[in-house]
Records
---
Amino acid sequence: MLARTAFALLLAASVAYFVRFVYWRFHHPIQRVPPLRWDHPGERLWRVFCEVLLQTRVIRERPVAGLLHALVMWGFFAFAWVSAEHLSLGVRGLEAARPSDSWYGVFAAAWAVAVTIGILGLTFRRFVLRPAVLGPLSGTSAVVAALIVLLMTTYLLGWRGLEAGSAAWQVNWWVHTLSFLGMLVVIPQSKHLHLLAGPVAIFFRGRTTSGMRALREGDDDDLGMVRFTDLAPKDLLDLHACVECGRCTQACPANVVGQSLNPKEVILQMQRGLLAGGEVIAGTEEEAAAGKVWVTERDLFQCLSCGACEEACPVGIEHVGRKILDLRRGLVSEGRTTSDKVGELFTTMERAPHNPWGVSHEARRKFLEAEKFPFFDGTQEWLFWMGCGLNYDPHGQEVARAMRRILDAGAVSWGVLAQETCCGEPGRRAGNEYLYLQLSEKLVEVFQGKKVRKILTCDPHCARMFDADYRAIPDYESLGIEVQHHSETLARLLPSLPLEPVREAVTFHDPCYLARGRGLTAEPRAVLAASGASLIEMAHHGKRTFCCGAGGGQLYLAEDAPGHDRQRVNHRRFAEAAATGAAIVAVACPYCPIMLKDAAAYAGRDDVAVLDIAEILARRLRAPALSC
Amino acid sequence: MSVLVVMEQQEGAWHKLSWEALAAGLELGRALGEPVAAAVVGEALDALETELAAQAVERVLSLRHPLLAAYTPDGYTTALEALIRETKAAWVVLPHTYQVRDFAPKLATALDCGLIPDVIGLRVEGGAPVFVRQLFQGKLNADVVFEGPPPYLVSVQAGAFRADQLQPGASPAPVERPAVALESKQIRTRPLERFQEAKRTVDLASAAIIVSVGRGIKGPENLPMMEELARALGAELGASRPVCDSGWLPLERQVGSSGQTVAPKLYLAIGISGAIQHLVGMKGSRTVAAINKDPTAPIFEVADYGIVGDLFEIVPALTAALKSSS
């Protein structure tokens, strides 16, 4: 009787402690907007099934550690019934114990061995191998590992090693019980809360990476993320889901080349600030050193917004659009940025002709005139949105020429705007929401006036703006515009094009905003295959691609001049591409070739050509038969 | 109807554009047949007064006051407004500096007179000056004349008037120090310490001629050849980003979006393909000449003159030709 009472009290206390601590971690004054996402529930459930139950992401990023983790996690599920039975015995009284003879006991015993192997392997890795990415040694990890080993060995002892009901068996039962209840105490106050928050965060994660929210309608105080009270429900989940594994940091191109940005630390600093009752999230390094803010402006403005961190994260955290870019927006809106380069970019974009290079319209007008591009007047099916890359960059203009040949060969009805301004992408990613709103407002008027229904662009950044960011503007959304990146259009046109494929070795650099930002990896490859390319993949390809160094406004910020103390993102990416031995690096974004050709010149590799998929395809078009 | 040139100094050093403003003022005075006075504003100005008095001006007007030690729009406007009213100067010529841009509109408003900013030329037609200023990013020149009673304010663009052709006066001009009535309560701004931009060891932005090299020069061992050409042209040496990334030249010589933005009279691009981030750094150049072996190199799209060929043949020949002609 005494034992039953003691057990009931201990169980109640542990559960109360657990609930209290979870409440403490999640109970903060935050925003209701944007709410948790419930769209595409089927896809979300499937994602949870794959990433949580099958542990696909955990294993993909780190096969050995991932498998060991999976053994532990699967074991936990196998043990659900064992634990329920174990606890029920505490309520019923230990004298009700019977020797286990069910098949489930054998099954659980097998898992107990697997879990022990898993947790000992992970412990060896964490405390002996000590990979730097895991950060300083964590005491709770040791406690949790010890508790898990105790749980497993006491189970095995109770199952076969000891006589059911004997004194030794009872002691063993209590050790198992206390270990179990200990877990309830440890989990909510450590990164092991990911057991609860992780699967939920994965369910509510955005369908693509780096998505920014619209400012809260009617809330004049919303200038972007400034204070901890600006967090939305998903942000709160993210901060508490973090398991501190550092996969994000390992994937981060800025971090890889030696910059100070560390996405894991951004999340953890935000978590620490939130729990410590902090007020303002980000500021200068001096403010951070003085303990006034938690994240530094310097780190935030190194972000390429490539989304590699979000793609690598096993617990569904959205580091980029929902935190880093939103924090930049908060800093810019409050005038708290100190970078001259950021100010220069905004000034250039604010002034006519409103492009991030400040190049005169004249250059584009001459090009369109010389090439006799048709102007869009509402009668054509597609508006070919050239974007600043194709408008002003000499290589971009080559891509525009290639697109023209393909579109005409495919009998596509298309036209370009006589005048284009920037869609606002670099401005918005660098944090200038006002600039973006100004530019988008003008553009939406143009789209309305020209009766635009379908937009085609070679720039995945522009495509992202028109297909995601702009959709938060009611006047734009009501136009019901369909947006395609040219890889989609070209893939669709392939059957109708007169092609003469020529076999050549090509490696494809997936643009971040296409692969992760739009979720497309097959289309550009289909275009390359139709051109005759035999593809040699880099280690970082598809959704795990590695940024060229241009994203998140960095093409224009490029504030990395001082010293040769570290590698550049584009140099690293080009080296990876060149190592495939392919003489052609294919791209599908106008910014990647700017960065990669720069790196090719640096490496002295003028034998490696950087070409857009449209250029590669256009070269394989059979010359049109001359008509008399 | 005299002419008054307002010179700009900072901490005892002339803003070099002041001399161009003085050249413009003297040109205007000659054309109108009017005397030209020069004014300077500050606190301790002895050396500057002497230097200015050596010029061919009728007199030097030195506005000295402790409250004028550092620039404030209120202080400068108050002092200059009183001076212009007192001397009844009709034409006030200023250099188009950042400081002048700041206070000239305020001064014009205080005097209730017109201001023609950023002029690039002047002439006198029928006894009245006509000023030339640029429109539409320099695509058109406009002739502008004043209406109404004087005074008239004019500021001159950098590089429009020749300061190097200033001739000293026959004898030093008298220096006058009119009393400046200024009280601290009239000045609403309190200047803090001057912000010092990181000193660049190389100032490409103000270079008249730049010889810029790209990865086409193959290696640092070929730099002396390029430096020789730069010397022969009296040019500064610039470079593209890959050249500086490779450490062949220091980063402060980098032209482009991550380096310096330049606007020389002549930009000679050698072995530079012309990537967009380089072009945006030199698009303000008056004349662009390019040497590149690749006839499709984008640099030729923006070049006024282009040579397709081997730069290792062309550059020495160019240097030799320059040397023999001079």
---
Amino acid sequence: MKRFIGFITKEFYHIFRDRRSLFILFGMPIAQIMLFGFAITNEINNVDIAILDHSKDATTEEIINKISSSKYFTIKQIITREADIETVFKKGKIKAVLNFEKDFSRNLIKEQKANIQIITDATDPNTANAITSYINAILKNYQQSKNEDIQQPYQIIPQTIMFYNPELKSVFMFVPGVMTIILMLVSAMMTSISITREKELGTMEILLVSPLKPFQVIIGKVVPYIFLSIINAAVIVLLSIFIFKMPVEGSLFLLGAESVLFIVCSLALGILISTIAETQQAAMMISLMGLMLPVILLSGFIFPISSMPTPLQVISNIIPAKWFIIIIKGIMLKGVGMAYIWKETLILVGMTVFFIGLSIKKYKIRLE
Amino acid sequence: MKTIGYIIQKEFKQIFRNKGMLPIIFILPILQLVILSNAATYEVKNIKFAYIDSDHTSSSRALLEKFNASSYFDILAAYPSHKQASSAMLAGEVDVVLEIPYHFERNLLKEKTADLGITINAIDGAAAGVESGYINQIIQGYNQEVRISYMDASQRVFQPVQIASVPSFWYNTTLDYKTFMVPGILVLLVTMITLFLSGMNIVREKEIGTLEQINVTPISKSQFIIGKLFPFWVIGMGLLTIGLILAKLIFNTPMLGSILLLYLYTSIYILVVLGMGLLISNFTDTQQQAMFIAWFFMVIFILMSGLFTPIESMPKWAQIITEFNPIKYFVEIVRMVLLKGSGLQDIMPQLLKTLVYAVVMNGLAVWSYKKVN
């Protein structure tokens, strides 16, 4: 036991001696969560649009005013010819063109119907869709104000309640995601280098001839990083509560316990990578290239998992981050207790055991 | 010139000798491009839908039939009470609950107005907005039918004015996300590989002590750097080529513009990334530090590139930060050139900025590289 403590102390010395890495370890997650919490949103704001008005009458002017006064759109350009649409789109700044037909007012009064074309640059389908529906909403509003005196009978009135996030803030979606990504990548990366580093620098031989058992070496490597990651997690949670006003509806204690579980899981994954990789370079490339994009894309952090093709939904189950995101959203936003997240928790525990078991098995006690 | 040739030869040998790294450099990115491009979709489908029908009339059943017919909703269950429905929502089993209250049909016919209760799990605010839109559309459609079947002819003559809007989606008429994402993810992978490899390369020689051996040779600073970076430039261009071919073959990504122009831009862009990697190499002592810094910038670059979330929606200060993000320019260009067929004239601003960026980065990198410790 004494030997084991000595080994852990050595690991701590290694970490604290490297000031620069330590600074990066703590500084960067804070910088990132601040940056992303404020900057990332998939809401639509200040979209630049252009107007192609063939009638230039009172009605079109009123509609244009309505659109330019909404916070979603900025009218950047007035164009006069159909051919210009292509030109402005190719420059890339303008995302939509509103095309009013000729004699708009007259058609509306005489035929009770006037046409407007919403042309969007649909290279980004999400933005194109959102622009179309926002403009439609504005048009509908305007149309209703024109029809005020007509009563519609047999009206079904939907009363919609937005649960857990009534203001539809995208921060609620992104802060748990960013937190997960930072914890996962930092933890996995930190440990993945630790063993390979000893291999590459040649100190592995010293560890191998020591009386420490393989599982002691591995646990000893993980323990210091658990402490570091817990501090990281606490800072991130505090930031999200005090700066981003994320609620914690559920138990703070449970949130802490689940975070520790997730950290241990990521660290175990890191250890596994490091027992497989021969060089630090390989270890880091696996933990960065192999983990970054899959974690961002398949965890449900930005893109909803339920919309993905079925094979990908199946693959997403092996991403630990997916389960952790479900857990923190549950605890922070829905206020659920263990009764609702035991399944996710059990999966994370299972993954952790699997990673640790596999790395002990893979850990070679002889150098080639 | 000959010296550079030898260094390049040495670097290539080192890269191809390392059998563990080869699949990471070439196979991993390709696999990710092919698989992950399918994941990046904001489309809202398979909405987990449940209902509470307290009315049990032909009207309520007709309304539910409408939801059943829509391809967006996966009708999962009928709950007898509110309590069970909320518990299911807490557990994450359902995302939308429609509640048809008691006397729905009677109210609609007698009082001419009836309420419906809709509860949406709104943690993903954007998706909740879309879901609410779909639901309202279905309800309105049903409402229209009710009106037509119950109103008599005399009531119907009164025509409201109508502004008909015709949406027209250019460049991507089917609103296919893969068309949008594949070029962007390709950009990411090219950047990640070149940045990580170049960022760790020189610092590795430092760490294992072979850099001193090179420093005592007559190789000059610039020869060494060019020799070091050129192989990664080749790898980057190679990856782009493989990626474009796969994009065409597997995803049938439209390629309207000039591919030559894209290569011209990429050749400059990779220089920016390599310069950045070199700079990181110069300011760190261990591969671990280099990796952390590279990772830090990479996460910021990715999430602030406009690849997954639109830049226009960011606050002003964040938009200013994105001006320094090389990935942002590359993502813009690859989409403009491939999907819209933009020409040299259209991409000139981005091209010039990237060029300046490349000069500054590599200037700084060469200047800060010291042969003598």
